[in-house]
Specification:
Rossmann fold, Tyrosyl-Transfer RNA Synthetase, 3 domains, RNA-binding
RNA sequence: GGGCAAGUAGUCAAGUGGCCAACGACAACAGACUGUAAAUCUGUUCUCUUCGGAGUUCGGUGGUUCGAAUCCAUCCUUGCCCA
């Protein structure tokens, strides 16, 4: 199966330029994707582009990961209804470094293989370019009419927020990236999210007009959730790839909690399982949806891919212990509790516990809930459990006899948010 | 520089002198039901609280008034039109 056919049945192709398939069949092709340095870690929204590069490399082509040191200074207006804040250079450098380290984990940059991945920073070439040169050599080839016809621009012109010249120019800047890579790295292909289509075609247009060259592109659909929510966001914010920002346990839980409909879609996109294996899983899911076989497989594959086997196993173990219906608190050993990586831990004074303290102060002081008022409301709503027992009374006293192994108290806020309080 | 319009909670958006911590929608969180789903129903969502209340809000500042999101002045920001 060709790369494009493979990506197609996985549901990873939205738009594609004619001739792309022929180009990929003809020779080893270098293809690039740009990553936005708006944070010092990639989050799961960037996972699809990463996987596109991985697929590209597996099919024997050369992936190029571009980090946007220059474009990050301008700000991509695509999908944004308002003008963006610009990043200062120091933050930018910090973010670039973090992203670089992560990308190195998923792509093979070993220089020995003929299709080793490349990493480039577009600031390296933009640093040298002067404004006048740019508007003469690049701006001359693209008409304003062409630029205004882009969706990302049109929407902003129709909206009430306006658009600065800076953001308007963005597509030219990104377009130039493609041109530069075409000229200097023999890059013939650009990929990205479908929101990038406008920027990508500007690049291809530039290559055509300036060099008479041919460039290709395809985009993948932007992920949505079946309930219309934003993909990759939870109540705790983004799901990051960096284990210091999102623990492997939380990462595992995110995928495990996918809606059935989403899980079936996502498992094709995010795992490398074969078509047969996936269809098999879907059949099993239909037979017994409560088993959530797809979610479990999805969570397993991804946690291993991002964090490794060991982290997956400990996330799975923590999950089993926290959620197993039969497991009473007594079955949790001290080691079990201690090893629960990823659930939030906080400390509480042992002396105060011995004296006894009301739940409300306890919840507020451990930071599990932000204030006493909220702690009270949450208890009245029935949303707090201590050592698995629901707290019904706001007067409830917390004291040292609740300590498990004379050391820990397990607090639940809602069904899925666990906190381990350690007496110290 | 001139004319017009707008700025209200996470977002959208009502409110045009007291009944306003501010209708509603969305979103989010929690509960029930379930499969750690979805859908549905219920509660909560400015901050703090000893649950009695208290404090700070409607772009900023100043004013009128017993009383201002609401009236006036001024400044800031944004959009549209003209130069």
């Amino acid at each position: 199966m060709s790369l494009l056919d493979e990506l197609k049945w996985r549901g990873m192709i939205q738009d594609i330029m004619p001739g792309t398939a022929e180009q990929l069949a003809k020779e080893m092709t270098a293809g690039y994707i740009g990553f936005d340095p708006t944070a010092d870690s990639l989050h799961i929204g960037s996972l699809v582009p990463i996987l596109l590069l991985v697929h590209l490399q597996r099919a024997g082509h050369r992936p190029i990961a571009l980090v946007g040191g220059a474009t990050g200074m301008v700000g991509d207006p695509s999908g944004k209804s308002e003008e963006r804040n610009l990043l200062d250079e120091q933050t930018l450098q910090h973010n670039l470094k973090g992203i670089r380290i992560q990308l190195e984990k998923y792509l093979d940059f070993g220089s020995s293989s003929p299709n080793a991945a490349l990493m480039v920073n577009n600031y390296d070439w933009f640093r040298e370019i002067h404004f006048l040169d740019f508007i003469r050599d690049v701006g001359k080839h693209i008409t304003v009419n062409y630029m205004m016809a882009k969706d990302s621009v049109k929407k902003r012109l129709e909206g009430s927020g306006g658009m600065s010249f800076t953001e308007f120019s963005y597509q030219l800047v990104q377009g130039y990236d493609f041109y530069w890579l075409y000229k200097n790295r023999q890059c013939r292909l650009q990929m990205g999210g479908s929101d990038q289509w406008g920027n990508i075609t500007t690049g291809a247009e530039l290559i055509r007009r300036k060099e008479g060259g041919e460039a290709f592109a395809f985009t993948c659909p932007l992920l949505t959730k079946s309930d219309g929510g934003k993909f990759g966001k939870t109540e705790k914010g983004n799901i990051w790839l960096d284990p210091r920002k999102t623990s492997p346990y939380q990462f595992y839980q995110f995928w495990l909690n996918a809606a059935d409909e989403d899980a079936a879609k996502w498992i094709r996109i995010f795992t490398f399982l074969s078509r047969g294996e996936i269809e098999d899983l879907i059949r099993q899911q239909e037979k017994n949806p409560a088993e959530r076989i797809i979610q479990k497989t999805l969570a397993r594959e991804l946690t291993i891919f991002i964090h490794g086997q060991a982290e997956y196993e400990s996330a799975l173990e923590t999950t089993a212990k926290l959620f197993s219906a039969s497991g009473s608190m007594e079955t949790l050993s001290e080691e079990d509790l201690h090893a629960m990586e990823g659930i939030v831990k906080s400390a509480f004074s042992r002396n105060r516990l011995q004296a006894g303290v009301d739940v409300i102060s306890f919840l507020a002081d451990t930071g599990i809930l932000p204030s006493k008022g909220e702690a009270r409301k949450m208890i009245q709503n029935g949303g707090v459990r201590i050592n698995r027992g629901k707290i019904e009374d706001v007067q409830f006293q917390v004291d040292s006899h609740l300590l498990l192994h004379d050391k820990y108290i397990l607090v639940q806020k809602g069904k899925k948010n666990f906190y381990l309080v350690e007496a110290g």
